[in-house]
Amino acid sequence: MTVAEAVEKYISRRHAEGIVFERGGSMLLQLCQYLGPVALAAVTAKDVLGFLDGQSIGSRTWRLKHQMLSRFFEFWSARAVLPGLRMPPQRPEVRQTFEPYIYSRAEIQSLLRAARTDHHPTRLVDPQTLRTFILFLYGTGALTGEILGVKDADVDLETGMLTIVSARWNRSRSIPLSRDLCEVLQKYRNWRARKRLFDPHFLVTKNDKPLSKKSVVVCFARLRRIAGVCRRDGSALEPRLNDLKFTFAVHRITSWIRNGANLSRMLPALAAYMGQVDLGATERYLSMTPERFRKELNRLSPRKGKAHWRDKPELMKFVSSL
């Protein structure tokens, strides 16, 4: 049996088990291309290591591909098609030290100006949609996938409430929207009506289809270049869409401090608003606030440890009053 035949049968087996296996299948097809028309039994650990090391990938991705290849070879070894293949040693796990990017208010304004002027007839994402999407993220502190999944029926502008269904945590939450964000969303809804766009999702393409994560990531990368927003801290990763979630939290905390708000009360509300599962989740946002606020934040930050308060009606009533 050749490697190509083994890969084809293995992918078919995964699909028959109800597994999408898109990423794993793509990786195995790359292995076929790398090894060429060779027999599966002729593959060596050196061949596998050459395939893994020959790609420009990070340590975490290298480890994931090593795991997928191990399962592939173990599958055929268990069926006596492949003699014992000793995989190259797994790389040690490297702790990630990535820090989210906190946009300044001036940078957000630059992104919005770039979105307003970024017209091109071949692009499926209208500038109005892209601008609304950025404000939606920044105004709610939600994840990119959460906002992409929002349906028109989830946005109640009469009461100023938004329902977010989180696939990540398999639960939903209802949060109040600011008056300014309600105005932005109402303008977008009016624009949709004029354009006769009727897809159930709130944010749609020019072809009346739901926005995809890939399309908005590509659009946002273009806006960053136009607006001149980039990292200057030596990080290899440029500012992301999901960094708007962290920016929302840091800007909110900073504003509360300047206005003398009771952080012991506000921080749990912030975590509930953003769909966090425990009070300790706010600790990460505290570490990103400007240094001049650090002493006060450390004094007022919630105690570490989990506290299951998200279902308390009195807290949700308070969140609705913000």
Structural class category = mainly alpha
> In one word, what is the shape?
elongated
> How many E-type strands?
3
Largest sheet, in brief, is: 3 strands, antiparallel
Strand content bin? under 5%
Poorly predicted ranges (pLDDT <50, ≥5 residues)? 300-312, 318-322
Description:
The protein has 322 residues and is mainly alpha-helical. The chain has helices at residues 3-16, 22-35, 45-53, 59-78, 105-117, 127-140, 144-148, 179-195, 213-227, 243-258, 263-273, 283-286, 294-300, 313-320, and strands at residues 155-156, 161-166, 171-176. A hairpin with a 4-residue loop joins strand 1 and strand 2 (161-166). The longest helix is centred in the N-terminal third of the chain and has 20 residues, at 59-78. It is elongated and about 70 Å long.
Write a compact overview of the structure shown.
The protein is mostly helical and 322 residues long.
Features:
322 residues; three-stranded antiparallel beta sheet; 14 helices; 3 strands; disordered C terminus
SSE diagram, text form:
Layout: H1 3-16, H2 22-35, H3 45-53, H4 59-78, H5 105-117, H6 127-140, H7 144-148, E1 155-156, E2 161-166, E3 171-176, H8 179-195, H9 213-227, H10 243-258, H11 263-273, H12 283-286, H13 294-300, H14 313-320
